[in-house]
Amino acid sequence: MRRLSSFKFQVPGWVATTLALAACGVAWTAVPDRPPLSPVLAEIDKTIREGFFDPKLKGVDWDAAVSRAAGELAGAASPSEGNAVYDRLLTILQDSHTFRVPAGRLPERNWGTAGLRIGEDADGYAVKGVMPASAAARAGMKVGDRVVSVDGKKYGRERVNFRDLFFAFEGAPRTAVEVTWQSPGGSPRTDRLVREPEQAGDALVWASARVIRRGGKAYGYARLWGMSAETALAIVDMLLDRAEVARARPGLAGWQEIEGFLLDARGNSGGYDPNILPTFLRGQWSAADYYVISRDGKRLVPPAYKPLPSVLLVNSGTASAGEALALKFRVHQIGLIVGETTAGMASGGAAAQKLPDGSMLWFSSRAIESLDGKTYEGRGIAPDISVADRPSAREGEEDAIIEAGLRALARREP
User: For the chain, give me the number of helices (H) and strands (E)?
Assistant: First the structure.
């Protein structure tokens, strides 16, 4: 996600607002007796008018909403009440990536994570991923456990935005998030999850990689927790020269035998435009650039990649650029999508603007629309094979979505 440039041509505020409205085709209407706008609210108003992807602001009465927020802020008795006012204002745009993050809540770099990924499930929210060796893993959380509340905010039928889906569990290392959760058939419990520095994305990919055997055949598996060039290139490296990977990594013995690949993007939070993987998985990759000579002989590198039958595993925690990856799988017919409908937070580009009080305004500067004119914001991407994400039912089996993916690969469905 890219931050907006801090450089802007400075013109008087009323001129900038008038010009922005005219360019967007929004008629200027004076708002009588509107309370004066605080610096933070004025900057939010200006940034949304000028930068939100839809110049008509989805048809909402933004003038009235800003005026209402100004009045509510004047009566706010605490910072938390003020935060709630900003949340109500931005919620009217009904956009998953448009929200405000209070000052100090997220560091500019070097984030820590509680290791918990969640998504919609039935009439609420549930665990959709637990990162290995994380605070969530040590607390015993498992996929399917109900999420009752996070830092006092209840998670029920009401849809949350990307901040509350993902950022809620990220923050500065050694800070904590309080999660109340409930296992099926159990009683609610509350755990204080301390955020820790997250492992590098490529390290997480390699740590997840393994060979799964079914019916006398071998299949490769790896999980993406986010999107970055490093995570994508880890997948490229493990699939491009599988014999070398099997030789160099004892934990991946038999990797050269795999006849299909399961790419797990469940609970994937996005973060990077995912073009590398679709390009590679379609076989559109550099090959035979030069020879490498060793005592083992002479060989061309990189070897040509012959696309493996692949499936993409998703769930309701697959969000943002993770959903863009699913769209690319479908458009280019890379493989079947298996699992649950994704989060419905497929932003085409989120920008962040620092506000006068140090808080951050996130907003969608671009939106995604498929080639056939569909949008996925608030709807998600439906899988080709629908399977609820649940733990394995029997000893020796994988979880339900992986098992469904293995069956799809065994059938060699296109």
Answer: 12, 21
Give rounded-to-5 percent helix, strand, coil for the chain: 30, 25, 45
Q: Which of 323, 388, 398, 412 is nearest to 120 (CA)?
A: 388
Query: Can you read off the two tokens belonging to residue 153?
Result: 């905010």
CB crowding 228-265: b at 16 or more within 10 Å, else e: beebbbbbbebbbbbebbbeeeeebeebeebebbbbbb
Residue 9 tokens, joined:
């041509």
Task: Check: CB of residue 405 under 8 Å from CB of residue 387.
Answer: no
Q: Where are the alpha helices (DSSP H) in 126-218?
A: 135-138, 162-165, 201-208
CA 257 to chain centre: 32
Cα distances from 284 to residues 323, 366, 371, in angstroms, run 21, 27, 21
Q: Which of 227, 232, 231, 269 is nearest to 129 (CA)?
A: 269
Interacting residues of 88 by C-beta distance below 8 A, sequence separation 6+:
69, 72
* Residue 50 main-chain phi, psi, to 5 deg: -90, -25
Per-residue pLDDT of the chain (414 residues; tens, 9 = 90+): 433 333 333 334 433 443 343 444 444 444 456 678 999 999 999 999 999 999 999 999 999 999 999 999 999 999 999 999 999 999 999 999 999 999 999 998 889 999 999 999 999 999 999 999 999 999 999 999 999 999 999 999 999 999 999 999 999 999 999 999 999 999 999 999 999 998 888 999 999 999 999 999 999 999 999 878 899 999 999 999 999 999 999 999 999 999 999 999 999 987 766 788 999 999 888 877 888 898 888 888 878 888 899 999 999 999 998 999 999 999 999 999 999 999 999 877 889 999 999 999 999 999 988 888 888 999 999 999 999 999 988 888 999 999 999 999 998 744
Residue with tokens 């009752």: 148
Angle, helix 79-91 to helix 39-51, in steps of 10 degrees: 20
What does residue 283 show for φ and ψ, rounded to 5 degrees?
85, 10
Q: What is the pTM of this model?
A: 0.87
Question: ∠ at Cα 315 (369, 144), nearest 5°?
Answer: 150
Instruction: Quote the CA–CA distance of 329 and 335 in Å, as a whole number.
Output: 6
